[in-house]
Request: fold
Amino acid sequence: MKTLLLKAENTADIKKAAEILRNGGLVAIPTETVYGLAANAFDGDAAAAIFAAKGRPQDNPLIVHVSSFEEIPPLVKEVDPRLKALAEKFWPGPLTVITPKSQLIPDAVSGGLDTVGIRMPSHPTAQAIIKEAGVPLAAPSANASGRPSPTSAQHVAEDMDGRIDAIVDGGKSDVGVESTIITLATTPPTLLRPGGITPEQLEEVLGEIQISHAVFEQLAEGEKVQSPGMKYKHYSPAAQVTIIKGSFEQYKNFLLAQKDEVCAVCFCGEGKNFTKAIEYGAENDSFSQAKGFFDALREVDALGCKRAFVRCPASSGIGLAVYNRLLRSAAFREIDLDIKIPVIGLTGQTGAGKSTVSAMLAERGFLVSDADILARRAVENREVISLLCREFGDDVIKDGVLDRRELARRAFATPEGSQALNLITHPEITRLAVEDIHAAHSLGKKAAVLDAALLFESCLESLCDLKISVVADEETRLERIMKRDSISREDALLRMKAQKPEQYYIEKSDIVINNNNGSDLNTQIENITDKF
Ligand code: TXA
Ligand code: MG
Reply:
């Protein structure tokens, strides 16, 4: 299919778009929030074509767009006075109201639900096209399902060229995030999706409202939802996204300490500190962040970055909408760098006795977090698993669980494979480590210890205030490994050879603990613990 490119300022083009829509076609139209992929809302087949073009799950209903209040009564079971009150205050504008539907709304539009979401957009082009078409328009955001929502005709073309009849170019969307969704079908009404109209504004009209927990939290697997759209992974670029909380200084130090390439998605004026950066709005201006956010996510892919670390926006006002979209694009992965407890990195060659030292530190009031355990937990994360499947093939999953042996076989076959595995797992490992560090603080521990054989090769190093290596003579380590793992001298030697030399650890550490047989470990450890 050839997709026509139409211009909002051409009256003939508006007429053309309306004609396509009346004839059951699909047209992407500009709205003040994001671009919508429109079809005649009374035409079930046309609505079905939207799902096909977007690759959207069938149970995820579409919003019906009108240009005046008079168009509403036939669409709903009855006109709720609260709908009228909301309309008077916020329409035309970025608000969708859900209310019981009439028979005229096809199941394909409502996703089989007995309610319908209605919105009156304020964008003059959207208004003109609805009027000219003479029918209400069912329209989801005009992105391919799962991708960031489109805020320009260019974004729509990236996802939809060749799949729909036409795109009407009306410039950049003004708000930049989708409408606020409130349902009147619950008591009190429930905010299902934050957007341009804030909870406070809604309460002025409706009195008490509740905010769906799905606004902030990941749904449990199989959980029943009020808004089917909440179930799906959303707004995601191909790159893996992680949210970073804390000051700019903390963000900067953390990003600059990353061993692999990352893209900084930050606020205006901050980008110059990084090799790859995209600024998505001004730090204290949620409106500018809303406007730039989806564009920034698409830009991450355009720059060819595999990982993006995003500065966390303030979550008040329209900032709540930005934060909600960011949480979904990051599969809810947040790292809070505002760490309130000292962090000790503990490492050393195999057989040097790192575990003995970490056990002694645990006994003395330190919380020890073991990187091997974190790495195992990281690959239990749903999003990490799906990224691993994309990288290494779907068959690293057997009977619904990750086959770690098969994954290791594929990943460690090449240096590129190992690097790809690290890129995918490190942000989640870091998140888990930081979670342990915060837990150590809440538990009143003196410090958190990150026990990691690959401390200096991993991103964990950047979290540490003090780095300690445990060393022991080669012969001592050899004997310990043979005994611990019941292996031959040759095999033990092979393992030792695969590691970095002792000097590497010594040079990178603040403190070196000597753990040969007969060394006084107690005194060495007390010298450290005395500092905390
Ligand atoms: O700003 C917007 O709302 C944009 C523009 C194009 O108007 N549209 C938009 O549509 O964002 P969409 O389909 O991408 O998101 C609509 C969300 C979905 O999560 C869907 O599950 C939910 O609204 N929704 C629609 N009708 C619903 C209903 N009857 N009950 C519960 N949720 C509903
Ligand atoms: Mg959408």
In short: The chain has a mean pLDDT of 95. The first helix runs from residue 11 to 22.
